[in-house]
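Render this sequence as a predicted structure.
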Amino acid sequence: MSAVKSILVFHILFLWGLWRIFKKMGISGWKALIPGYRFYVLGRAVDCEQEGRVLFLLEILSELVRLTDYLPMTYENMLKENVKLALAVFLCYLLFVIMEIIYQLRVYSGLCHVFGRKKWWLFGFALFEGVTVFIWGMKKDIVPVNLISWADGKGAAKSHGDVVSTGSGLNINIKERTVKILGKNRALLEDIHMNIPRGHMVLLLGGSGAGKTTFVNAVTGYEQADARILLDDRDIYTEYEKMKYSVGFVPQQDLMRGHDTVGLTLSDAASVRLPASVGWFKRRKRIKTVLEEFGLASVRDSLVEKLSGGQRKRLSIAMEYISDPSLFILDEPDSGLDGIVARGIFEKLRTIADENKIVIVITHTPDRVADLFDDVIVLAKDDSGTGRLAFFGSVEDARTFFDKNSMEGILRSINRTDEGGEGRANEFVEKYAAVTLNETREIA
């Protein structure tokens, strides 16, 4: 059998097997025949939608690459004409293939979970994809046991609607945040409403995929949603160019150059984060103040790469705080730090909040600093896979609401059962919606 015939046979086995797998999962079999789209469908069905999207693009690109076989300039001719160009093309193609394999294995890993099979099947998918997919499709005893229940769910009931602004603090009313995937709208966030007073430090809690990053991006205006976000009654969306200096966001990974000094790093941040109207002398004074406030004045002339983990994190925070924002959001500021150093970072954030500012923090170790927070926002995925508000209120009220003694216990209650949780997200989303609805009726 020639190589071309072998490839054709394996491809037919792959399509036939994937068709059958789709049927077992309640998906229309014909979707297995569409290049790219089939992996998006499979990825979404096994809770690997992001990987499915990447594979969709990679497979389409792969089909385009195959078309180049019919172009006059073949790879052999390119190799003769320009060795460097040919080498660059080969390396790009190799990277392309490696990415495709990695993302396929991630999706197949999700498939193993859905079908309740051991991960050693991944060797079969990697080495003999067509045959392995065919076996899974044809064998009657290989059936789904952990279907993702939220893939086509209706979602939890909604709350009463918008929260009226108090005129001070942060007023959040997110109707929905959607993305268009293959012509179809997919909700990432929905029905999130709250007022956060000035002077409050707030814990943002939620499991993987609950929408914490999407929520932060929507609140800061980085990725606008169908929403109204007010900071002291000023609309962050409509006045974004003016309001962006009042909002600071510190990502988990810092963006500092190791060979710059602390002073130069903060000076560069000031040139970006402070309005052009701020003069040179005021800028110098602000830099000096922030250096002293974050305990960095003594290392002003030190290189960033020579700083300790705690000092580096403080500098990363100082870079955003240089604009003196009213709303300060941080993504895992304690990442990679030991308990004592991390505690010091959170105590500094508590001080900032006490200066009549709003501080919102994401952390994966909430219980060791829970006493420093005023409120907690709990986001959870409902059974449609949409990020919803399961609770907003004081830390103590959160423990009562979820009947848990710890923040980690709260997380377990809303996480899906296949994530080691209790799978009660819908229950708490609807419970909180009912509570807020009753409160609104009492006020009325």
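Summary. Confidence is low (pLDDT under 50) at residues 440-444. The chain has two domains: 3-138, 170-443.
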